[in-house]
From TrEMBL:
The lineage of its organism: Bacteria, Bacillati, Actinomycetota, Actinomycetes, Micrococcales. This is DUF1801 domain-containing protein. Residues 15-33 have a biased composition (Basic and acidic residues). Residues 1-11 have a biased composition (Polar residues). It comes from the Bacteria.
Length: 141
């Protein structure tokens, strides 16, 4: 017989995951202020995450100005037609050793029968920034 989960276990979610879920619920209930909300979340990040998020924001807005800046689970995201195409997740969000740049299924990044949809980012080099620009361009093509 399985033990009943206690309310503190919250079905196995960590405190950080529960906070992200609550953030997403707030986002869906209120009117988004797009870029203002996104920039506010970037400003709240730890220094290393903030530097990466600022560069990614600059890259995305330069190469894909048609994408709508917004927040998604309390993190920077960029949408087309209301659907998130690309997002950034700060390492500090879930206390991980790297940040994540991810693409959702609406992104046109298909490459054969298998391709990556998320990338770990420990630091951004000029080559990384170029690759991000290429991926975002491809994602919205």
């Amino acid at each position: 017989m399985m033990a009943k989960a206690t309310s503190t276990e919250s079905e196995g979610f960590t405190a950080e995951e529960r906070a992200a879920i609550k953030e997403r619920a707030k986002e869906s209930r209120r009117k988004q202020n797009g870029e203002a909300d996104l920039l506010e979340k970037i400003a709240e990040m730890a220094d290393a995450d903030r530097a990466m998020a600022e560069r990614i924001h600059a890259i995305v807005t330069e190469v894909a100005p048609e994408l709508e800046p917004k927040t998604w689970y309390g993190q920077p995201a960029y949408a087309k037609g209301g659907k998130v195409v690309v997002f950034f997740q700060a390492a500090s969000k879930f206390d991980t050793r790297y940040a994540t740049l991810g693409f959702n299924d609406v992104a046109n990044i298909d490459d054969g029968s298998m391709w990556p949809t998320a990338f770990a980012i420990a630091a951004l080099t000029p080559a990384d920034e170029k690759r991000i620009g290429e991926l975002v361009k491809k994602a919205v093509s």
